[in-house]
Design goal:
alpha+beta, Arc Repressor Mutant, subunit A, 38% helix, 21% strand, 3-stranded antiparallel β-sheet, globular, two-stranded antiparallel sheet
Length: 99
């Protein structure tokens, strides 16, 4: 049985991402994405690191393991944070589950 950490995500075709001064800015292209009062979304450095790894090939678990190792962070905390971010991005249709 596939767990949440086994899932693989990729950016939606309905969002454009641009990196400006180390921050990732997400711009929804389709109507109804995100919140009506928000047009741009900025990811903090941790969110930006996750976004760069959401390539449709890496599982959330492998992303979490890589970030936990790189930042010497508690794996459980990293997993929780990734699930929260990807859940929010998925809800806003900015990422989709791959294949």
């Amino acid at each position: 049985m596939k767990t949440a950490m086994d899932k693989v995500y990729k950016p939606s075709d309905d969002v454009v991402a641009r990196e400006i001064d180390g921050e990732i800015i997400l711009v929804p292209l389709a109507a109804g994405m995100g919140d009506l009062e928000d047009e741009l979304y900025t990811l903090n450095p941790t969110g930006a690191a996750v976004w760069r790894m959401l390539n449709g090939e890496r599982s959330l678990g492998s992303i979490a393991a890589a970030l936990a190792k790189k930042h010497r962070a508690a794996p459980a905390t990293v997993r929780r944070d990734i699930l929260g971010l990807v859940g929010e991005l998925s809800r806003r249709r900015m990422v989709t589950e791959a294949g």
